[in-house]
């Protein structure tokens, strides 16, 4: 099963003729992802590594039957691209783009509320169900099939932790990068129930960081509804107040969103929180045994 | 981006929110002139982008022009919470009957704007929420339709505001929301909104706008003030780096915000003190990028050792190594602890080993973050 994406997922790439779009399309094809089409207005009829390019998402969906889109367009055009994807009735839209204006995002969320489309991101690395499908830019080498689900707000940190786990013989069902945006589409709270229901997932690793209240909201769900074990790790114990730590969402504002408050909320919900990066593998191993 | 009080007040005033009479002064002489023009008591307010400016001594009352000149002299050039005061705002002193709080925020978890109102103005909103939760009124509204009059009326009547108060407040609230939408504010507040004999006046003004939308607001970009951040942070912004000064002696460089924070945390856990947070972002394929990062971290004179933690998923490791060598050729001031993972990892490490041998530079290659953190702490003398 896995969650969000698997071997049946058919993907179109919005912004396929750009540098990033082209490069990542090749990497996803190499991994075995079913990329069935690309979109680039005005470039319809061309192809990228054998993938047909269409002028509009609507046309791409009609011609290919795709159910998922990945967006590699610049921030200024991302609003339009996401709305176009939602309008075409896709099940899942993965938006890699960073730096989308806040008010554009609010309007996107407003539109999402009245549609069936799920948005992963923006400003996220995407998702991978090892050896089934990869929709995003996660590095293949870090992942192997297995029964641990991972959901995370960061990129390279997730790759590093996954790689450590893979080397220790702990594979993953699906790894989901929800991204470092302050107003992401899918949140921890949305992903956890999917892992809870997935029969290929035995336990979940939640990788959080300072800022916002997504971990606290996840803790509420875990405490009341989750039966599978959850392991947590929170980055940013040493982060100062009021400073944005790289990710737009990683900021402690008005004393809210500290690592301590998140760790406490998760522990209260029964999550086993790894104290530091190098405890993560051991903690997961104990639980998975 | 945060605007200064005087910049925000100009915008407020242009959009129908009354503000006190006054002007900006860059010298004590100018402060005196303005006080003379205004007549009577004035308030001299340091224009720095930090919270809690009043408690830190940045806002003072002056009884006459002499006094205003003296206070301006004290304030201009001084530091408030680490921020240098370059300008002061000189304003008429208000005859305060009541102080209210009015704020507009984007609630990130509800994904919509909210208007916050309270009769307990003058303290910050977190303090109000903590001390007088029952006095904090919050109205969420639809980002497309905007705040409706009835929502304000409903909330204020229930909180037993008078009809005349409500009609005056409504005007101000609507104007504040108009400003927020027009400039794509993350937060804008009037605190305190003062009730005087002649009506409501915005005694302070705050306007923080979304950085990602600045390309749509060239008029705001012109107002950008480099004093918003620490001097080293300013240079980092100019170089397009995500750098935050923490204050210890172990420099940290990692590619990715989460990885950089996790690296800092581990250094601290092992008994060291991180000097900074630095997320290189992408673009490490160009060795110049890594060089710029190292230079940035080493500008901080307290740094005794640098820990570079790179997970090169697309970037080739030899390019990262080339960048480190480029930087070390320029100034080889401290030992470098380096963890390099990714494409052509061995080649990158080989380059660094050869360079260390040839130049005598102190480079410690490590295989894990734990080992690196331990080594860095050891070099800094922490444990």
The main β sheet of chain A shows up as: 7 strands, mixed
CATH class of the largest domain in chain A: Alpha Beta
**Radius of gyration of chain A, CA atoms, in whole angstroms:** 18 Å
Order of helices and strands of chain A: EHEEEHEHEHEEEEHEHEHEHEH
Our count of helices of chain B gives 13
Roughly what fraction of the amino acids of chain A lie in strands?
15-25%
The helical percent of chain B reads 25-40%
For the secondary structure, the number of strands of chain B is 18
Shape call of chain B: elongated
The total strand number of chain A stands at 14
Number of helices of chain A: 9
Tell me the Rg of chain B in angstroms. Answer: 26 Å
Question: What would you note in describing this structure?
Answer:
- The complex is a heterodimer of chains A (289) and B (383).
- Chain A is α/β, with parallel strands linked by helices.
- Helices cover 34% and strands 22% of the residues of chain A.
- Chain A has 2 domains: 10-120, NAD(P)-binding Rossmann-like Domain (Rossmann fold, 3-Layer(aba) Sandwich), CATH 3.40.50.720; 138-288, Succinyl-CoA synthetase domains (Rossmann fold).
- Chain A has a 7-stranded mixed sheet with strand order 3-4-2-1-5-6-7, sandwiched between helices. Chain A has a 7-stranded mixed sheet with strand order 9-8-11-10-12-13-14, with helices on both faces.
- The radius of gyration of chain A is 18 Å and the shape is globular.
- The two termini of chain A are 21 Å apart.
- Chain B has 383 residues and is of the alpha+beta class.
- Chain B folds into 3 domains: 21-92, ATP-grasp fold, A domain (Dna Ligase, domain 1, 2-Layer Sandwich), CATH 3.30.1490; 98-221, D-amino Acid Aminotransferase, Chain A, domain 1, CATH 3.30.470.20; 231-380, Succinyl-CoA synthetase domains (Rossmann fold).
- In chain B, strands 7, 8, 9, 10, 11 and 12 form a 6-stranded antiparallel sheet that branches. A 4-stranded antiparallel sheet of chain B has the order 1-6-2-3, with helices on one face. Chain B has a 4-stranded parallel sheet with strand order 14-16-17-18, sandwiched between helices.
- The longest helix of chain B is centred in the middle third of the chain and has 21 residues, at 163-183.
- The chains are: A alpha/beta (289), B alpha+beta (383).
- Chains A and B meet through helix 4 and helix 5 of A and helix 9 of B.
